[in-house]
Amino acid sequence: MSQPGFARRLCVLWSLYFVQGMPFGFQATALPVFLREAGVSLAGIGFASALSLPWMLKVFWAPLVDRYGSRRWGRRRSWILPLQIGLALACGAGAIAVQSEGLTLLLIVVFVMNLAAATMDIAVDGLAVDLLAPTELGHGNIAQVVGYKVGMLTGGGLLVWATAEIGWDGLFYGMAGLTVAVMAVTLLFRERILGSEVPDELRNPSVGAVLRLLRMQLAKRDALWLLLFVGTYKLGETLADTLFKPFLVDAGYAAEQIGLWVGTWGMLFSIAGSFAGGLAASRWPMLRVVGVAAALRVVPVAGEWWLTLVDPSEAAIIAITCAEHLFGGALTTALFAYMMSRVDRRIGATHYTLLASVEVWGKLLAAWASGVLAQATSYPFVFGAATVLSVLFLGLLIPLAGTGARGREGAAT
Q: With 146 labelled, which of 81, 265, 268, 275 sits at a CA distance of 20 to 30 A?
């Protein structure tokens, strides 16, 4: 049973995750195209993913977000609102950077945007853990993942597609304006924690208490398998996705086409997959849904490998892109719901951030390796390796399956 005000809470969470998705969508989809058109090497594009380091390192300052927060403004909202202001200002600086054609300045701006969005993500994830009852996790993670992906669709797809008319500076001004619009939602929202599982003394726990509770979670018998599982489930997919846009550029396709196919149509299918994955995770054991989605995802990753071996047609590119995003979206939402079900709700921001950071670490390592590997070998070799890794990941479901029932029962304590 959903708690009263469920739809309103989902709308708030959707809006907050939407804002966070825009800068990452720009880096993941638009920045590789921008850099390749500027003549940057494949290795340079691969290493540019280091600009997302704040997403990988945010776990180190997550305890501060769990510890500090204003009673008047709300434990989570007192972090979210200032960070939204900072993100809007950074987007404005990005418009200035592309107008001045300063590549170094642009890369600095993208890093700052990621820093603001990643820190905001800690607070918003903590808010989601606070607001969602265990029975609401499947639907709640639809709001989380779909909101984030619509943000990515906007920052890495729709606005990129519109650059032919508004220019790259217009893209940044658009992201700034949308961030300001969501700030109104943040100002009007009032926090409310569901249930009584969080005692008063842990509403704002000390940093020491946060770390002590986290160590207790990591000492559990299945904690290592969970971390390994979360850190590797997208290794193969990321290896392929990082180079798929540069591959299309080298195949002769324009930025507008890539933005439409990958950043727009692909993201729409990813959103559809996220709905499917979230609904399935609310009806069946979450780990079973993860396994089915992961197995289906192997097929389009292999399809991307095939594209590098032939003269790809537009129809084939679109079909494989949409299938890869559909199954990848279902997998992501089901996994995030499973992750949230395993979180100690007393330290929701820190514990979930640790799991989310491990997920980012795995993807970032693959992204860094992709450009160097492709430059040393070839596109077909890298996409073949991505397919093999996607198959090997399925083996990690076996040792974790013994604890999969917990993902059906609700939040860990």
A: 81
